[in-house]
């Protein structure tokens, strides 16, 4: 559900450069790959990439060849990134000060920007703590698109995003039947 919502927002929000923050290198790579699969020009950057690759990713992001940068907190501080109109917290940071660094990537030097937190039910406790520790008040919006996206999801367990069978439910015993046919 979070991924479908992210794709919808990226395709329908008017934006310049966008940063999507994840907590792990693995999730960063997965989200970037699946965004490309959804025809969104996205690149991943995290501390596990060699410096040369990180430089290439940043050059493409600055030039607009890739408008979406999916990143870990390695991009939350110390990088000079201009024209970021949107920051999405796909994963809520574990430490509250990281939240401030992340959302500080947008609306720099008096420019306007948006910070959007995509929360699932498991994120609420951590996010409440982040807000409390930073004395931050936010406007909570439940987007109408959530009902729209949810209504399109088939019942049953979903395959991982990027899987060719995405949006087709896996029914119990399906894998075992395939093995028996061999």
Task: Walk me through this protein's architecture.
There is one protein chain. The protein has 182 residues and is α/β, with parallel strands linked by helices. The chain contains 7 helices and 5 strands; from the N terminus they run H-E-H-E-H-E-E-H-E-H-H-H. It has helices at 2-12, 25-37, 51-63, 96-103, 124-134, 144-152, 174-181; strands spanning 17-21, 42-45, 68-71, 84-89, 114-117. The protein has a 5-stranded parallel sheet. The longest helix has 13 residues, at 25-37. The chain is globular. Mean pLDDT is 79; it is low at 155-182.
From the structure above, extract its key features:
7 helices, five-stranded parallel beta sheet, Rossmann fold, globular, 182 residues, alpha/beta
The overall strand count is 5
Structural class: alpha/beta
- Order of strands across the widest beta sheet? 2-3-1-4-5
- Rg of Cα set: 18 Å
Fraction of helical residues: 40-55%
CATH architectural designation:
3-Layer(aba) Sandwich
The CATH superfamily title: P-loop containing nucleotide triphosphate hydrolases
Shape: globular
Total domains: 1
**For the record, what CATH class applies?**
Alpha Beta
The average pLDDT value, as a whole number, equals: 79
Fraction in beta strands: 5-15%
Oligomer: single chain
CATH fold-level label: Rossmann fold
Number of helices: 7
Distance between the termini: 34 Å
Q: Summarize the helix and strand pattern as letters.
A: HEHEHEEHEHHH
Low-confidence stretches: 155-182
What kind of sheet is the major sheet? 5 strands, parallel
């Amino acid at each position: 559900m979070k991924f479908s919502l992210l794709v919808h927002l990226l395709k329908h929000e008017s934006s310049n450069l966008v940063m999507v923050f994840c907590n792990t290198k693995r999730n960063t790579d997965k989200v970037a790959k699946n965004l490309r699969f959804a025809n969104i020009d996205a690149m991943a950057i995290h501390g596990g990439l060699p410096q040369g690759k990180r430089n290439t990713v940043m050059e493409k992001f600055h030039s607009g060849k890739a408008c979406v940068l999916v990143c870990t907190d390695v991009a939350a501080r110390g990088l000079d990134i201009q024209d970021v109109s949107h920051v999405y917290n796909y994963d809520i940071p574990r430490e509250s000060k990281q939240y401030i660094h992340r959302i500080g990537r947008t609306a720099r030097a008096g420019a306007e920007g948006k910070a959007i937190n995509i929360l699932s039910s498991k994120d609420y406790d951590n996010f409440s703590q982040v807000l409390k520790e930073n004395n931050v008040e936010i406007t909570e919006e439940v987007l109408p698109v959530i009902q729209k996206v949810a209504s399109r999801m088939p019942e049953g367990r979903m395959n991982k995003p990027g899987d060719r069978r995405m949006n087709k439910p896996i029914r119990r015993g399906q894998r075992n039947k395939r093995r028996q046919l061999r």
